Task: structure prediction
Amino acid sequence: MRYEPEHKTRTRDQIVRNAARKLRAEGLSGPGVATIMKASGLTVGGFYKHFRSKDDLVVDAINQGFSEFDDEADSFLQGVPHEDRWKEIVRRYLSPEHCDHPEIGCPVAALAPEIARAELTVREQVTGLIKARGGRLLELIPGATTEERERNFFVIFSAMAGAISVARILPEAADRQKVLQDMRDHLLRSY
Result:
């Protein structure tokens, strides 16, 4: 059976979307290739028609996670005055909804400790994705100079990802909410 030329691209995109959610929900060592392929309605045998290795899929899935997260941000920032956009990002990032749903949230908040233990090539590629994301958001970050905005981006982003990670550890909703609220209040007051 012959497929149209776009079939391979659509199939690969479907695998990456499924992997992006599964990896954020279960971790890098959670779902194997077989699980991801099955979730995509495919067999494991087809994996290597689309990817050289699981590491290639991981990087693509993290990139997909950033894209999904950025698309949502673009949507909720509509109508928010430019000078208030970074504050809205902080509020949304440090929300109970983001904390409770890692499968649709920021890949760094969901996967940072595991990414830190990944192969060097994976870490380097993810670093590039984070820097690109920072560059995209830089115009929204407070600061008088580009250097100051870059520094503030990494401080704000690291603080938010860390707060989400810590909050996800806590079993009590009230404790999670306190961590998120305290970090949100601190960031909004400090910049």
